[in-house]
Amino acid sequence: MDGLDTTVEEQKAHEEGVIACWSCKGPVLQVVPFCETCGAVQPPGQVNHFLRLGLETSFDIDIDWLDQHYFNMQRNLHPDRFAISSAQEKSLSQQQATTINDAYETLKEPLRRADYLVDLLSADLLPDGCDLVNDQALLMETMELREALEECETLEQVNALSTRAENEIKGCIEKLSKLFKDNDIEGACRLKTRLRYLKKLTEETRIHQMKLI
Fold first, then answer.
1. Would you say residue 116 has pLDDT above 90?
2. Residue 83 lies in a domain
3. How far is Cα 139 from Cα 90, in angstroms, rounded to an integer?
4. Does a structural domain hold residue 116?
5. Same structural domain, 103 and 188
6. Is the CB of residue 12 less than 8 Å from the CB of residue 21?
7. Can you tell me the distance from the alpha carbon of 92 to that of 22, in angstroms, rounded to the nearest whole number?
8. Candidate from 56-60, 63-67, 118-122, 156-160 with smallest mean pLDDT
9. What is the mean pLDDT of residues 165-185?
10. CB 3.0 to 4.6 Å from 122: which of 51, 66, 108, 126, for a disulfide?
11. Are residue 96 and residue 150 in the same domain, yes or no?
12. Whether residue 60 sits in one domain with residue 28
């Protein structure tokens, strides 16, 4: 299989395992929020965010599909559906909803998704941690951009710097896609650190814009 993509079915076979339903004792896959036999809500399984949301382990995801799938899952776990359920099932539905929400919030945003994917894949490759990568060029770029922002005296200058940062962010996301496909985890590690700095810069430009309005 090319790159890092694996099918959801292959992930299931490797990661999920089968547990016994707390209610009917029937077999349940850890990734499934409801028992297929009796319909009872299950405790959140120990699976990664991608598998929990029915996605391949890949940086490239269909955000529209993710949004729809997430809202469907949350709708099925809405408290109103468990108004007359047992205390245990109410508690499990809340646990499932919280876990699914955490997975969704992590995967929908490119930087958080890159962070999570690097952590998921780099345990053996980068034992000292991703953000400890010493990249002098990145540090110099970051210092120069912040100095440029400090020197901005007009709204037009700040807007131009903001546009530059946004374009660089788009470029980073496109490059991250290729690096993950090529299984270049160290390269992805460096680039997602740059993406974090650029996103921080856009936040600082917004603050600066407000001061000049």
1. yes
2. yes
3. 49
4. no
5. no
6. no
7. 11
8. 118-122
9. 96
10. 126
11. no
12. yes
